[in-house]
Amino acid sequence: MATLQTAVLAEASGMVASYSNPNILWMHNDSGDAANLYAISTDGTLVATVEIPGVSPVDIEDIARATCPDGEGSCLWVADIGNNNQDRDVLDIHVAEEIDLSVSNIPSPTRTWRYQYRYPHDPVDSEALVVAPDGSRLWIFEKVDGPNARVYALENPQEETVATLSIVATIPSPGLAIPYGRMITAADLHPSGQRLLIRVYTGSWEYRFDSSLDFENLGAIEPLTVALGPLTEAQGEAICYDNPGTGLWTVSEDPEGAGHQPLHHYPCQD
User: Fold this and answer.
1) Could you tell me which residues come within 8 angstroms of residue 264 by beta carbon, excluding any fewer than 6 positions away?
2) Which CATH number applies to 2-267?
3) How far apart are CA 48 and CA 92, in angstroms?
4) What percent of the chain shows pLDDT beyond 70?
5) 208 near 195, Cβ under 8 Å?
6) Which of 29, 144, 127 is nearest to 82 (CA)?
7) Helix, strand or coil, per DSSP, at residue 216
8) Sorting pLDDT into bands at 50, 70 and 90, what band is 268?
9) Nearest residue to 192 (alpha-carbon basis) of 241, 121, 154, 158
10) 186: Cβ contacts below 8 Å, ≥ 6 apart
11) Which residues make beta-bridge pairs with 227?
12) Minimal CA–CA distance to 167: which of 185, 145, 148?
């Protein structure tokens, strides 16, 4: 669909379609960057850089969009949850109001929240987060090189406490059974709550719920293949539905570190 007209997202690790700004995708890098969110036009142009104030992230791995925790407006839920060495006991999710990019002087978010959690067992690695449309629940997917992955949930996130996740499902990992081929690197929830995207290094899959947000039965759902690869996305770690939910976007990190990666769009067939 386009090529990123910037090198700042060489380690693009997550993206989500904007609710407040037409034709904008919010993206971020993983470890090594500040708490920067990049507004990218669907033609690949960098429109703005917004930094979440007061945040020094360790390893941001995914981003979701949902209602703000106070029930007012649209927020971006930013998952500082990377744990490659499984040595982080407490992980962070930062929530920031979505900025209106139509103003001349783009401000930093003034309404922010921070949620912390730990696993109900030894730490694991994760790179995928989805949030219920009303912000009342969130789900995190284990990144593991194996045939099955656990799905964790947090109900009614609260600040000023470290919550413990609960395991709500174990799913057969989609993807090809080759080394690293089934490691979940991104996820996104359809605006209706009826569909879920999961991305692994070898492709992307969509799960269709019988009832909205039915994560407990996710392991019994046979996913639909969106695409294998593509080969032009050598280290694919980002996926999202487009704003109306009639298609989806993917982008990859650039293993060479040069940026300017291709941006792909897949229109839904039904």
Assistant:
1) 1, 230, 232, 233, 249, 250, 251
2) 2.120.10
3) 24
4) 100
5) yes
6) 127
7) helix
8) confident
9) 241
10) 13, 14, 62, 127, 128, 197, 198, 199, 236, 237, 238, 239
11) 204
12) 148
* Chain segment 218-263, per-residue pLDDT in tens: 999 999 999 999 999 989 999 999 999 999 999 999 999 899 999 9
Question: What pLDDT was estimated at residue 269?
Answer: 80
3-state secondary structure of 32: coil
Q: What does the pLDDT look like over 96-151, one tens digit per residue?
A: 999 999 987 888 999 999 999 999 999 999 999 999 999 999 999 999 999 999 99
Q: Is 180 left (phi over 0), alpha (psi -120 to 50) or beta?
A: left
Question: From the centroid of its chain, how far is CA 161?
Answer: 23
pLDDT tens string 71-80: 999 999 999 9
Alpha helices in the chain (DSSP H): none
Nearest alpha-carbon partner for 137 in 166, 113, 109: 166
> What CA–CA distance (Å, rounded) separates 53 from 24?
21
Task: Determine the length of the chain.
Answer: 270
- pLDDT > 80? residue 270: no
